[in-house]
Specification:
alpha+beta; Alpha-Beta Plaits; 4 domains; 5-stranded antiparallel β-sheet; 5-stranded mixed β-sheet; 12 helices; DNA/RNA_pol_sf; RVT_2; Reverse transcriptase Ty1/copia-type domain-containing protein
């Protein structure tokens, strides 16, 4: 506590002002936390003095907020660049969460990327000396702790090897299974049983809805490194307000699958070609409650996973082609955003982004304006896909349904089909022994 308080004073975090009757004085509290290492041992005891911001009113007490939080997709993109170019990824920790300072330095011919998630920072680039200089300058502004090569970041375990970098959450899964008393369960080959259909009232209500919500919230964070469970987690998340016994049974089935795949994660290997490639799919009218479709897609850069999504569509589609086209639109939006990010980072891609779809009608609607007269009931903003095709930013191509890996994000699959599609994704297991990593 003393170190935290002294550091706040040294950095002039606040200014004392006279209290007047019209001021809304907000309170604060101390938050204590035990930080653990990857192996489960205690790393340090942490104290934070935090303001109780919920006592403020937006537009009255404050007008804007600042939250330096990077997207998971951006982390994966930078990891892809670092592995491809054999850059070191340095990690530093800021002792105080109150970051406010100016850092000015100009360097020509140097690529340096700084990823900030509140007070956790990653640095990488093509000049190791310049990275050291930046760390030194940051240390002059803030109290830092240099952690060396990235190893454990935001609960994500990074294992660097000659083959690439594996991002996993083994300890996170172990803690979840321990919390739910599922460490001794029998593993399941798939996250959800084949043909499993869930609905709002498929059985009696679950007696412990808070437990269900807590576990699903934990599983949602786990999808940061586990695209193979994205569909099941999304499906279970649709019943948070009123979980049933059957929903909890499916959740336990998913936990059994995690028991057998604790050390599985996303693998980043050196990219041979800087090419953006996406796969899009949809399961038409799959929801038993409202007949909305489920759309799924994922995007690769040089063969490395950048982002993935499994989500129930917002409106009811009249045909399978329409649901597929809506999924194409969502995938195109992500591709356009990634193209913009790559341009901002001065990273050139080799050609138009490839978008693979297994529905010939959807591909035809995106490529041929003759079909547009028959699809006026689809929202006009979806047709921006056509504009991207015309500008050659996106190249949509057909892929047979049996070869469509995005099928993994839209429906329950048999064990054979599930394993086949998982093999098409850049997933890998840690070479470390799971039990020794979490004892």
């Amino acid at each position: 506590m003393k170190a935290e308080f002294d550091s706040l004073l040294a950095k002039n975090t606040w200014t004392l002002v006279p209290c007047t009757p019209d001021l809304n004085v907000i309170s604060n509290k101390w938050v204590f936390r035990i930080k653990h290492k990857v192996d489960g041992s205690v790393d340090k005891f942490k104290a934070r003095l935090v303001a109780r911001g919920f006592e403020q009113t937006a537009g009255v007490d404050f007008h804007e907020t600042f939250s330096p939080v990077i997207k998971p997709c951006t982390i994966r993109l930078i990891f892809t660049l670092a592995v491809t170019n054999q850059w070191s990824i340095q990690q530093i920790d800021v002792n105080n969460a109150f970051l406010n300072g100016d850092l000015k330095q100009t360097s020509s011919g140097v690529q340096l990327f700084i990823l900030i998630y509140v007070d956790d920072i990653l640095l990488t680039g093509n000049d190791a000396q310049k990275i050291s200089e930046v760390i030194h300058l940051l240390n002059q502004q803030f109290a830092l702790k240099t952690l060396g090569e990235v190893n454990y970041f935001l609960g994500l375990e990074a294992h660097r090897s000659a083959a690439g970098l594996l991002l996993s959450q083994t300890k996170y899964i172990h803690d979840l299974l321990s919390h739910t008393h599922m460490l001794g369960c029998k593993p399941s080959p798939t996250p959800i049983a084949t043909g499993q259909k869930l609905s709002l009232l498929d059985s009696k209500l679950f007696d412990h809805p808070s437990l269900y919500r807590s576990v699903i919230g934990t599983l949602q964070y786990l999808t940061l490194t586990r695209p193979d469970i994205a569909f099941t987690v999304n499906k279970l998340s649709q019943f948070l307000h009123q979980p049933t016994v059957n929903h909890w049974a499916v959740c336990k089935h998913l936990l059994r699958y995690l028991k057998g795949t604790m050390n599985l994660g996303v693998m980043f290997r050196p990219a041979k070609r800087m090419l953006l490639e996406a796969y899009s799919d949809a399961d038409w009218a799959s929801s038993l409650d409202d007949r909305k479709s489920t759309g799924g897609h994922f995007v690769l850069l040089g063969g490395n996973l950048l982002l993935w999504s499994a989500k129930k569509q917002g409106v009811v589609s009249r045909s399978s082609a329409e649901s597929e086209y809506r999924s194409l639109a969502d995938t195109t939006a992500d591709l356009v955003w990634l193209q913009s990010l790559l341009k901002e980072l001065d990273i050139k891609i080799e050609q138009s982004s490839l978008l693979w779809c297994d529905n010939m009608s959807a591909v035809a609607m995106a490529s041929n304006p003759v079909f547009h007269a028959r699809t006026k009931h689809i929202e006009i903003d979806i047709h921006f896909v056509r504009d991207k095709v015309l500008s050659k930013a996106i190249d949509i191509r057909y892929i047979p349904s049996e070869d469509q890996p995005a099928d993994l994000f839209t429906k329950p699959l048999s064990s054979h089909r599930f394993q086949l599609l998982c093999a098409k994704l850049p997933l890998s297991s840690s070479v470390k022994n799971v039990s020794s990593a979490v004892t």
